[in-house]
UniProtKB/TrEMBL annotation:
The keyword Magnesium does not apply. InterPro entries: D-2-hydroxyacid_DH (IPR050857), D-isomer_2_OHA_DH_cat_dom (IPR006139), D-isomer_DH_NAD-bd (IPR006140), NAD(P)-bd_dom_sf (IPR036291). Belongs to the D-isomer specific 2-hydroxyacid dehydrogenase family. Residues 112-286 form the D-isomer specific 2-hydroxyacid dehydrogenase NAD-binding domain. The keyword Oxidoreductase applies. It comes from Pseudomonas ulcerans. This is D-2-hydroxyacid dehydrogenase family protein.
Length: 327
C-alpha cells in the first residue's frame, strides 16, 4: 500500500520506534510547513492509497477527496475532529480510523507556560544573554488561585499540579465538571462572572465544538484582574476573534500564555499577539512530544495495518465499510 504522511514539520516521523511497523509498504513523508492549496494537496496525495494525518494540520474536504480516486483509508492520529469531513469520506467509501489522545504532554506544557509566565523567565534570560542582570521581578505561584474551565483529563492533571504548588483551584464548566471538581476537594465558581473575576491564573481546557466556539468573550476577559494570567493550550477558537488582543491592550488580563492560534502554522512574525510585550507564545507544542508521538502514530499505524489485513478496527465511519474502495 502507498501511504502518505503529510505535515511532518519536524522531520521526526521516520525516527519514531513505531515507524518500523510500516516495513514492506511504500511510505512518502511530507514536510511542508506552508499552508497548501487544493491543487497542491491533490498533487501531493495523488497516488496515496492511505493517508496518516497528524492531528488537525491538514483539512480534508469533499473537494479534495474528489481529486483522490486511489484513496481508501485515512488513519487519524488522535480523534477525528472538524478538519475532516467524515460524511464526505463515507459517501466515497473511504474508511476513517482514529486513535487515542493523551493529557500528559498538554498538561505539562500548560504548567510550563504558567511557571515561565509568572516568573517572567523569557525576558530575564534574553536580558542575561545581552549582559543585563536581574531586569524584572516575577511572582511565585503559591497562594494564587488557579481557575480551570473544563475539568476533564487535562484540567484534572492541572488541579493535581496546583495542589503540589499550593494553589487553591477554582473550577467552571458544565454541571458535571463542577460536581466532579467539588468531589475532588476543589471549589466550583458561584458563576461564570465570579470565575473570571476571582482567578489569578485562568486555564482554558475545553474541547472545541459549536457550543464552545467563541465561548470566551471580551466581557469575560475584562472581568479578570489586572495582574491575572490567561493560559490557552486548547484551541484559539474558544476565544472570540480579536478579544484576547483587545483585552491585553486594555490591561485585563495583565498577561497571556498561548500555544494555539486561529491560523496555523503562524508564520507571520508581525502578528500582534506574537509581538505583544505581555504575551508568551509557543508554536502549538502541546502534543508535540516523543512519547505522545509514539502513542498517536503507533495507534494510527496499527489501525492501518489492521485495515490492510482485512480486519478494520477503531473505525469512525462504519457505514463506509459497506462501500469501501477496493485496492
Amino acid at each position: 500500500m502507498h501511504i502518505v504522511i503529510p505535515d511532518d514539520y519536524q522531520h521526526v516521523i521516520r525516527s519514531l520506534d513505531c515507524f518500523a511497523r510500516l516495513a514492506g509498504h511504500e511510505v512518502t513523508v511530507l514536510h511542508d510547513v506552508q499552508p497548501a492549496s487544493l491543487e497542491q494537496l491533490a498533487e501531493r496525495f495523488a497516488d496515496a492509497e492511505a493517508l496518516v494525518l497528524t492531528r488537525e494540520r491538514t483539512r480534508i474536504d469533499a473537494a479534495l477527496l474528489d481529486r483522490l480516486p486511489r484513496l481508501r483509508l485515512i488513519s487519524q492520529t488522535g480523534k477525528v475532529s472538524g478538519h475532516l469531513d467524515l460524511d464526505a469520506c463515507s459517501a466515497r467509501g473511504i474508511v476513517v480510523t482514529e486513535g487515542r489522545g493523551s493529557p500528559v504532554a498538554p498538561a505539562e506544557l500548560a504548567w510550563t507556560l504558567i511557571l515561565n509566565a509568572r516568573r517572567q523567565l523569557v525576558p530575564a534570560i534574553d536580558a542575561f544573554r545581552e549582559g543585563r542582570w536581574q531586569v524584572n521581578l516575577g511572582q511565585a505561584l503559591a497562594g494564587q488561585t488557579l481557575g480551570i474551565w473544563g475539568y476533564g483529563k487535562i484540567g484534572q492533571r492541572l488541579a493535581r499540579y496546583a495542589q503540589a504548588f499550593d494553589l487553591p483551584v477554582l473550577v467552571w464548566g458544565s454541571e458535571a465538571s463542577r460536581a466532579a471538581a467539588t468531589a475532588d476537594g476543589h471549589r466550583a465558581a458561584a458563576s461564570r462572572e465570579a470565575f473570571f473575576a476571582e482567578a489569578d491564573i485562568l486555564s482554558l481546557n475545553l474541547r472545541l465544538s459549536e457550543r464552545t466556539r467563541h465561548a470566551v468573550t471580551f466581557a469575560d476577559l475584562a472581568r479578570m484582574k489586572p495582574d491575572a494570567l490567561l493560559v490557552n493550550v486548547s484551541r484559539a477558537e474558544l476565544i472570540a476573534p480579536g478579544a484576547l488582543l483587545r483585552a491585553l491592550d486594555a490591561g485585563r488580563p495583565g498577561f497571556a500564555a498561548v500555544d494555539v492560534y486561529e491560523q496555523e502554522p503562524l508564520l507571520d512574525l508581525a502578528d500582534p499577539l506574537l509581538r505583544h510585550p505581555r504575551a508568551l507564545c509557543t508554536p502549538h507544542l502541546g502534543y508535540v512530544e516523543k512519547n505522545g508521538y509514539e502513542l498517536y502514530f503507533g495507534d494510527a499505524f496499527d489501525n492501518l495495518l489492521a485495515f490492510v489485513a482485512g480486519s478494520p478496527q477503531n473505525v469512525a465511519n462504519p457505514q463506509a465499510l459497506a462501500t469501501q474502495r477496493q485496492g
